[in-house]
Write a structure and sequence with these properties.
Elements (H helix, E strand, L loop, with lengths): L1 H7 L2 E4 L9 H28 L6 H29 L4 E3 H34 L4 H4 L2 H27 L7 E2 L6 H5 L7 H33 L5 H30 L7 H25 L2 H15 L1
Parallel strand pairs: 1-3
Antiparallel strand pairs: 1-2
Length: 309
């Protein structure tokens, strides 16, 4: 019976924003603008970091990696979502759904650990400034980047394998992309074990990466408070403000989405939450790092000045 169901369901249809049917055009325009701004903002961040030698430091290397990851993350989800707003009931094959979920989970986990790495980078810069360039060498940066991506690949493989070995009896996904829980709900059998695996992986990712950030900032704050001058303390805090803002929003939405009880939110609330971590959070990174970061703003001015002259 399970084998029969697995072969019968070869494609899915997204329910998406069908409950907001009369606002589809408005949603399409709003999401398209936000997506365009997200891509443009992250492309500018990566480009500026690449071309301006003043930004060739470990902190901006990790920022460029995060911006690149965010671009891919949105590319996996938003174009298909936008096309679904134009033409409803567009099917997605089982293989395409598997691929979308795999890359979504990989990049989401990668982003969590990149934020943790950036927290560690700020700890080394503030607490061990004399050894900063030695500790955060080019080799160490590459290792940390590969480690974050490798963890994402490994855990995504576990989650995707646990879900797509299930037999599916239904084909309508109550979401706008192939997310873990909405796809799991389509199964013919009890998914308690799969839910435990998902909760364990999500808990590991969020708790481990958040712990790294939390410990880093406890040590950072204790070091900053020892700085004698108020100007020195202000400058030290300023280097962490952008990262801390992104961390709070990123981990906040991720924790609510993947660690909440199964029926805590309505379908509309789940959609709103998903929009937050798939559209708003990726847009937040370039906005925060460009508006709150003096070095990035200076680099933008230099780049614009060279272009004009």
């Amino acid at each position: 019976m399970q084998r029969k169901n697995l072969t019968e369901v070869t494609e899915f249809v997204f329910l998406g924003f069908s409950s907001f049917h009369e606002h589809r055009t408005t949603l399409f325009v709003v999401f398209l603008i936000l997506y365009t701004l997200t891509l443009a903002g992250n492309v500018i961040i990566v480009t500026i970091i690449c071309i301006d030698h003043h930004l060739h430091t470990p902190m901006y290397f990790f920022l460029s990696m995060l911006a690149s990851s965010e671009m891919l993350y949105t590319l996996v989800i938003i174009p298909h979502m936008l096309s679904g707003l134009i033409a409803q009931n567009q099917p997605i094959t089982l293989a395409a759904c598997t691929t979308q979920l795999f890359f979504f989970v990989t990049l989401a986990i990668n982003n969590c650990f990149l934020l943790a790495v950036m927290g560690y980078d700020r700890y080394v810069a503030i607490c061990n400034p004399l050894r900063y360039t030695v500790i955060m060498s080019k080799r160490m940066r590459v290792q940390l980047m590969c480690g974050a991506f490798g963890i994402g690949l490994a855990l995504a493989a576990i989650q995707v394998a646990s879900i797509f070995t299930l037999p599916f009896c239904h084909r309508v996904i109550g979401h706008f992309f192939c997310d873990i829980l909405p796809v799991m709900k389509l199964s013919c059998i009890d998914t308690t074990l799969n839910e435990i695996i998902n909760f364990a992986v999500s808990s590991f990712v969020i708790l481990v990466s958040m712990s790294v950030v939390f410990i880093s900032y406890v040590l950072i704050i204790s070091t900053i408070l020892k700085i004698a001058s108020a100007e020195g303390r202000k400058k030290a805090f300023a280097t962490c403000a952008s990262h801390l803002t992104v961390v709070i929003v990123h981990y906040g939405s991720a924790s609510i989405a993947y660690l909440k009880p199964k029926s805590a939110n309505s379908a509309e609330q789940d959609l709103l939450l998903s929009v937050t971590y798939t559209i708003i959070t990726p847009l937040l990174n370039p906005v925060v790092y460009s508006l709150r970061n003096k070095e990035v703003k200076d680099a933008l001015r230099r780049a614009v000045g060279r272009h004009i002259s």
